[in-house]
Amino acid sequence: MGKGVRAVLGLVLLVLGICGFFTVPASLTEYPVVLPKEGQPKWARGAFHVHTTRSDGHGSPLAVARAAKAAGLDFVVLTDHNDFTPPAPTWVDGVLLVPGVEISTSAGHLVAFGMERPLEGMQRWMPASDAVRAVHAAGGMTVLAHPVQRHNPWTDEPSAHEAKGFELYSADTFFRHAMRHPMSRLLPAVGAYLAKPMHGVMVLVAPESGPGERFVELSREESKLGFCAHDAHGLPSYESVFRSLAMYLPPDQVPLPLPEDAKAAAALVTGALRGGAAVCAFRALGEPEGFILDGVDAVRREARVGEVLKVHVPGIPDPERVRVEVWGAGRLGPDGTSVELTGEGVVRVEVWVQGPGRFFGSEWRPWIVPSPVRVLPRGPGI
Hints:
This protein has 382 residues and is of the alpha+beta class. It contains ten helices and 19 strands.
């Protein structure tokens, strides 16, 4: 056996050994971290930003629907690359498939969904502002895809302000971050995935400050909606990613079961996604049913300086393992669930959970992520 072969074999054995080091503790992890309360109304839940074999995904729409059903999802927003004539909404194996598209523009990738009319004048690598305006002209919603990702960031400032939404957390970005940190993040995730795929995906969840800071910056002039993107291609498996996070739609806007008519059901789902009341939840940590951010105008996502928001944490939380995080124009009160609005601008409020870590320890991870709140000048009498 030559030296080169022995070196490669040694490297493979080393990688397998490192992965195996994380496989055993992964098999002992327990989810969810926060147990649900009985009697809470069920929220519609689904996957946002999913690719199939219509572009670079590894699974057909049928395979995606089956994975979503196995993961307990109600809908999937399909966003194949440059699929400018996506199919109509349809029910597949009990899951609503909602059409969308991820557009390759001159400045990055743009997710669009909810179009009421056909997209016109579309082509790959078109100017970013033209793409945003074309989607809006078709009655659709625009979301900046992985806008701060090193691999494919959004680089055009004017169109960044024109888009209506922002992918704050992206499973694809987490994976690419892990690729840059193979020893501390990627190999532990691979080892965990071998024992418990959902935990392997959650090990990848390591938020960086850049997306949140950029999100707040863009939201100062006009409220932007926050999304968590699966950006799923089938590796890791669709089902494991779907079990790890989802977009949730409140029951007062999207009552279950969804309408049997696929077009009517898709209109409800897209309307709620673009309305601002939807929340993202890393559902492996717990379900968000019962979460309320009280004190916010639910339609405008606005409040005023001096007002106090109240976070109602759902489920049966352990105070030592659940905390409220605040960024921007607000500060957390001494009770740990009240947020005083301290100045004009934007405030981000999230609930984080101390979940299973890469080995036997634990790590703080985002759990419930609503869209940010614009803070307006102090009102009379406040």
